[in-house]
Amino acid sequence: MSGRPLKPGWRMVKFGEVVRQCKESVDRDNNSFERYVEGGHMDSEDVHIRRWGEFGEDYVGPAFHRVFRKGQVLYGSRRTYLKKVALADFDGITANTTLVLETKDQNMFLQELLPFLMLTDSFTQHSIQESKGSTNPYINWPDIAKYEFPLPPIEEQRRIAEILWAADEVVKTYGAARKQLSILLTSLRDAEMCSPSFRKICLGYFLEDIVAGKSVVGGNEFAGPDEYGVLKVSAVGADGFVPQENKRLMHQDDFLEKYQVRKGSLLITRCNTSELVGRVCITNNDYPNLMLCDKTLELVVNPGIASKRFIFQLLRSRFARSQIMASATGTGEAMKNISQSDIRSIVVTAPPLDEQSRLADYAESISQEAERIDSQLKSSKALSKRLFDGLLETGVSVDG
């Protein structure tokens, strides 16, 4: 902790002096609980439990028997660098590897402040340092209990908690808005762009060409500003083109200008995992030092009969994705392939060109708003992080 003097009324305490581990347990096959929480249900640096499993007659899941109660804090004791800390808002069961914690005395240390303390950099650094094992490091309760931190007076704890939960509410609001925009965009693609009222035709009808890149030898590093590189399939990202996802050419004279990445290109991956094969993006700039690889194709759309932006949105619809995944070949899940002929055979809708443009404009307006929300969400999370790191240090006032 900081070497600065403690503020008046603050005192150094050990975690185990003010927090207890709760070890209530039940028979996993004979209890009244309806829900269980495992490590995968908890998100990093998120104090809320947003997912869970449910018990039923045919339940064959993990043998959990550690009980947690509403208001207690769950802490993932394995790989503590993941920062999995959550305040339970229902009763349930979890695994022994998830610690269940509560403060010993609400008049000494507020329970609602506990999860934020456990997300501070100081607490995380302590947990990482005290963890045992190399492959799947874990920490035991006695090692957590010896963590020391400055404890504010109870009234200041209340003010700090009020600030932190208000910041969390802002993050939650932005997150909910972002989720609704995703639902709206999915609905637009599936219900309007893929409306049964439009005639259907094979994608190949709209294409002037499919340009395949070339397989060239690349290194482990990405190309610098004055170097040539070849795209990796990961350059076609979930949220657009990612130019940093390239490999520096081992032989710079292997670069072929005819495969140069140009602004406004509609790219599709022909080789990737089941979920990512056939992923599309439109490039936002010219990249004269980058070239297509043989696993990244450019779809050249005939502008007289189709909107490239509309085709891009269509290929992200569930209607098109289901066709792509059904056509992809490969023996394992690690890598699937889709041929150019299969791409041309994807069935798409064919509304009038002006309707294509209107729908594409609408989709882009939703995406732009989503990007704005993403930026606000990122800023809000960063602010929240600074708050619970700063307000729980000595010498940091919450006045004003």
Give the tags.
alpha+beta; 400 residues; 9 helices; 4-stranded antiparallel beta sheet; 4-stranded mixed beta sheet; 20% strand; disordered C terminus; 24 strands
Record the SSE blueprint.
Blueprint lengths: L10 E4 H4 E3 L13 E3 L15 E2 L11 E3 L4 E4 L8 E3 L4 E3 L3 E6 L10 H4 L3 H10 L10 H5 L2 E4 L2 H40 L6 E3 L4 E6 L16 E3 L4 E2 L2 E2 L4 E3 L11 E2 L4 E4 L1 E2 L7 E3 L4 E5 L4 E6 L6 H7 L3 H10 L8 E2 L2 H5 L2 E3 L3 H38 L10
Parallel strand pairs: 3-8, 13-21
Antiparallel strand pairs: 1-10, 2-9, 3-4, 5-8, 6-7, 6-9, 11-24, 12-22, 13-16, 14-15, 17-21, 18-20, 18-22, 19-23
Helix pairs in contact: 5-9
Q: Mind explaining what this structure looks like?
A:
The chain has 400 residues and is α+β, with helices and mostly antiparallel strands. It is built from 9 helices and 24 strands. It has helices spanning 15-18, 114-117, 121-130, 141-145, 154-193, 308-314, 318-327, 340-344, 353-390, and strands spanning 11-14, 19-21, 35-37, 53-54, 66-68, 73-76, 85-87, 92-94, 98-103, 148-151, 200-202, 207-212, 229-231, 236-237, 240-241, 246-248, 260-261, 266-269, 271-272, 280-282, 287-291, 296-301, 336-337, 347-349. Helix 5 (154-193) packs antiparallel against helix 9 (353-390).
